Structures
1.
Amino acid sequence: KRSIWAFGILISTAVTSFGGAFQFRNFAYDESSHLNHYNEVFGLKRNSNSTLNLQGGAAVRSRIESEIKHRRPKYSLSLVREISGAIMQYSSAERLDPLFVAAVAAHESKFNPNAVGKFGEIGVMQLRKTTAQWVADQTGMNQKIKREDLKNISKNIELGARYLAMLRDKFKRK
């Protein structure tokens, strides 16, 4: 039940944040989708000749940092870099588009590591403790997840990226 509910939330987030450009049946993803998502999520126009692309990791990170600063102007540069660095690291580790992970974080918490949702969701990726523990167990982390772990930016984004990748992989086969 948790997976189906979460997939519904993921689809809802993708539709809201990305205008439904995913092919939901197999999550096919191409450069034109990337361009559309970028434009809709960040409200900017970009063309395929831009230096900002999936191969340009520094440019993507810079764009994510710019969006964090825009949404959270009082954040220190070190905090902005910590969030963007974790997004880049864990999206790459899970073979996810970093702009997609950033869009989920922007939608869920507006990049606020101290965000707490009305149902107990915590941190940048708005994970519940029970969901985070389930993800940790399913992905072989062999770690007892505590509430404090979800307040840790890196751990929260790692678990969130793993969760998105699990959902992608689960529903890619259906």
2.
Amino acid sequence: EGQAQDIGAIFLPGHKEQVHEIMETVKELRQICQKPRQQYDTWHGINISRRVSIYITMLFLKLGISANTATTIFLCSGVSASLLLVSESKLAVFAGAIMLQLWYILDHVDGEIARYRRQASATGVYFDQVCHYITPALVFFGLGLGLFFRLHSIFYVIAGFLCAFSFMLLSAIK
């Protein structure tokens, strides 16, 4: 059993995580990693995201990826989706919509990793919450900017900005 450097070392120099042999089945991993969240999850979260996320969690655990690195990947997928939505290409916008689905699934993975490793932290929760403020706001602004490039009306930029700003304001209040 050797030490392997985590992908997180790219983002956090000096960070190392031991690679684990995952012995648990998917069913056992669900029991360990997926706490009941009915009051928070949407239909999509319960019926799609949580069913898929555990397989990504298993892969990330085998690769030694930390919860904070999973959050960074989650953030990057959301930012990428937002950038794709700005494009004038229908295919790029479609790819952006698919990336948003991946973003939503990846949202579950960081917490599942933290629960598996019993490494939940205030820093990790804060980082996750910041990602929850940034990505949806960027999606609204990206949609507005994308519509501006297609329809040439400044209304969409203003609407996208107002939606992004309103989302961040409402998120900060709650």
3.
Amino acid sequence: ALCPKQIFPGNDLDGGFASHVVVPARWLCPTRTGRADELAKLSVIADALSTPWEAIERSGLKKGDVAVWVGVGGVGGFGVQLAAARGATVILNGFGDPKEIEALRAGMAEKHHVEVDFEAADLSRPSEIEDLVKRIEARHGAIDILVNNAGIQHVAPIDAFPPDRWDAVIALNL
């Protein structure tokens, strides 16, 4: 079960994405593994899964709804799978590897017997956003849920941060 309050030690509580956080025992739950490396992997999956799960729960997504997911790597990848499992028509959008996106699209369509499409658009360009919405509505009708999970990053010292990367990050992430 996922935490209904969506509270994560090291994220919402002391530490803010810290690698190690002191957590009172009452906030922990037993697991079947004692290996720290397995728990570390599980915690990353839990966070990446609980975020889209909560978005879907709060949206009231149901079978037959049209769900548009912008950004389908990591958190978005889990989100589109959850939406397909609920029986939604899922529209993917993202900058990822085309072969990986196609494998994700085809796999979900086959496994969940739902329609899964990919629609290309560069969301840093407002005209492409408008065209994306028009194409989706023309083919599938009204959009019931849209999750904007898109984001890019570039890490560099401030004096070495290329202006074109800054512009790209701001254009897409904001």
